[in-house]
Amino acid sequence: MVPAWLWLLCVSVPQALPEAQPAELSVEIPENYGGNFPLYLTKLLLPREGAEGQIMLSGDSGKAAQGPFAMDPDSGFLLVTRALDREEQAEYQLQVTLETQDRRVLWGPQPVLVRVKDENDQASGHQAIATVEVSIIESTWVPLEPIHLAENLKVLYPHRIAQVHWSGVDVHYRLESHPLGPFDVDAEGNLYVTRELDTEAQAEYMLQVWAQNSRGEDYAAPLELHVLVMDENDNTPVCPPRGPAVSIPELSPPGTEVTRLSAEDADAPGSPNSHIVYQLLSPESEDGVEGKAFQVDPTSGSVTLGALPLQAGQNILLLVLAMDLAGAEGGFSSTCEVEVEVTDINDHAPEFTTSQIGPISLPEDVEPGTLVAMLTATDADLEPAFRLMDFAIERGDMDGTFDLDWEPDSGHVGLRLCKNLSYEAAPSHKVVVVVRSVAELVGPGPGPGATATVTVLVERVMPPPKLDQERYEASVPISAPAGSLLLTIQPSDPISRSLRFSLVNDSEGWLCIEKVSGEVHTAQSLQGAQPGDTYTVLVEAQDTDEPRLSTSVPLVIHFLKAPPAPALTPAPVPSRYLCTPRQDHGVIVSGPSKDSDLASGHGPYSFALGPNPTVQRDWRLQTLNGSHAYLTLALHWVEPREHIIPVVVSHNAQMWQLLVRVIVCRCNVEGQCMRKVGRMKGMPTKLSAVGILVGTLVAIGIFLILIFTHWTLSRKKDLNQPADSVPLKATV
What we know:
By secondary structure, this protein is mainly beta.
């Protein structure tokens, strides 16, 4: 067998023997390339264990990669991201390695030399051409790497893609394409593509090149070349049609899958042009809010819930960007829309708007069926089925006195009375009403607002007061003075209850009534009243303990002609004494005992203080019965002295005036009056006693002065007498 050498110029990566170090790859790229980017240059055959490592692209000697080059980790292609200019840099020396995370090299380094070809030499197209030498041993072609050709390549056709040469002999070449494709080979072994390729029509071809002698005999088995048509990124990703809204229950945990997008790209399957990644455009995170409501997996297109919780009733439109070329610059993109509807769950327990109602007062005679109170509860859930409530009396109604009444779809419940109330049995009730959701509750249980307490106070029912008459009448002369007693209003049962009286419709102000005793008096002179006229007022009586219980009866006053005014005959009244400051003592005043009518028992008599304002201010007169009255001090302090109080006594048309003599004095602890003591006859007064004492002291003083003066003068005289004048003692 004659040895031969094959020279192959192609755009593919030469085969590297598994046992040997990868040989340097040489790739050419035209400068100022006007096609789409990124432009895929060549594919590296990485080992199977490459999935466990990371592809690293660097410059010569491990430096950072020069120029706009990158590696596609999914396909293993070396690519350039922009057009290159030969004047700036003519070639780039790159190294590709496969390393683990701890920087251990699994494969490589694979040196790659990228040359920038001048614009004037475009015949070879955009694919760089590398020259490799492959030997043929015993007429056997060495297998070659596939040839990668870009679709829709804008070059002059036919376009050379490789050259086959059989050294040492004169041969002819014959080409077969499976399937039939636009390829040809000339006599020199140049392999051409005759027109643009389209991946949609055919993505790969199998070419066989035969070497024949002049007799048409084959020298060896055909050289098989695998041609792969590189897809051009000329198709936009197509999003799936927008379907109905995706329902997501409220409170779904983070990571719950909402939907999975699957955009389609008409470019060649498995190529970078059809490698689609996804990016979430909206909704965006709000300022000051941590976390996102949605997340999208860039590779799988799975849309999941984020950490930010969603609220029931929200309708959210998700915008997801689908990008080919794995999201690299220069690729196409489409916006996918996904409508998400957050559905409600029964996660809110119903609560009362008011937890305390009352106290509500009810009389014990209220009829059963009466509405006691209306309670309102609310539920924050949106679904009508989750807002259905059930009410019950939890405690405070052991004997079934109360009951609840509500509509199934209403949040209002009425507390009604079922039985008669009894003040003696229970003067008050505290009814606790609880509300629950009809549907099963999801999440935390009911809060403190799920109960409401209604306080009911039972009022004792008492009959209204009743007077001893249903109608009162009295006659009074028009000349009756102020304070004249007309009549006394009394209850029918004065022992069981006390009443408080008042007058209504007393338009003229002629009458007054004692609140406690019920005595009706004239409040002033009956000026303007005419004999024969009547004057009607209402007497209202209220229960002292239960002011709401009251009754009223008419009082008709008949005015009589005034009789001739009798002369007032003052009746002498013995002197009495009262203590000041006021004590619980008084003076009993009786009618004129000498009066024949009174003596014969013709009564009753009315008593009134005289018209003197000072007397009416200082004194108080209260009628005891038809014949006696009780006189007391009206003020706490009255001047201690003898007072004469005029008291007017009237009976029918007759009037008498009594002059009551009362001595007001200071009293001791025993209530006995301490009167002022007068000076006794023959006893000196205080002034005379003081005069006598002072005169005596003055006389004594004068006497002492005279004695002292005399003693002083005599002593001075003795001191002035000469010595020889002193008499000698006589000798006996």
